[in-house]
Design brief:
Elements: H1 2-6, H2 11-25, H3 28-36, H4 41-54, H5 58-66, H6 72-80, H7 86-92, H8 102-111, H9 115-124, H10 138-144, H11 148-156, H12 171-178, H13 181-190, E1 194-200, E2 203-209, E3 215-221, E4 228-234, E5 239-245, E6 254-259
Helix pairs in contact: 2-3, 2-4, 4-5, 4-6, 5-6, 6-9, 8-9, 9-11, 10-11, 10-12, 11-13, 12-13
Length: 261
Amino acid sequence: MALLIDSGADIEKYGERSLKLAAAGGHLDAVKLLVSQGVDVVAHGGEAALLAAVNRHYETLKYFVDLDTGVDAINEIHAFYEKFIDGDEEIVIQLLWPLGSLDGVLTRAVEAEREDLSILIIKIGGDVNVRGEAGWTHLHTAVYHKLTKMVEFLISTGVDVSVETDYGQSVLFFARSRGVPEIITMIEKAAPPVMKIRRGEGQLTVEIEGLVGERYEVSYSPNLREWETREIVKLESPTRSYAVQKDLEQPMGFYRVKFAD
């Protein structure tokens, strides 16, 4: 490693991958050399520490902790060290692939139902809203696999609860179909109300889907700048429909729905 650096190897270009390889192999001297040459441990130290941990290289992991990089997740990786299982190494080792990324590793971890590992990867920098095959997000997958702890954590990060798959399946749809009461309640409370506008029978109808017992404000605007409250609706059932415009000859304008203050 030292010989390569002395020969003019491009640290900025290859430093990140070299740091991961050194950490995964437990080559502490190489890790220290790369850090001394300016490899950004704040940006990449979390991934390297995770690789060191799952490959059981404690001294290398401890080095990242002692660096005090300001990446809080490194300390959590250190605390989680004894909990890693063999399957975690197979998941995390993807970070060493040429196109490996945290998002790909996070997808594998969620699909493998490894809640604690998934949460660690998110804290290092995994994208909670990334969309995978058929438009599924990590929240769709966590709900489908009934991962209560993972669902709660994802919601706490501000994940998009309203997103649908490419086939129009909402997170709430999966929650209700999988039938875990705690998850259903979490998603219902976090999901924004859904409003659909329908034309028919000579009038314009708004259908609101939301949380039973919750109050929602329906507003109208002719130009998307000035909004007028048309009605405060309290849902007695998961959906409610009512006519908002009975003369279809008039301009339709715009409608929106939100939680009432």
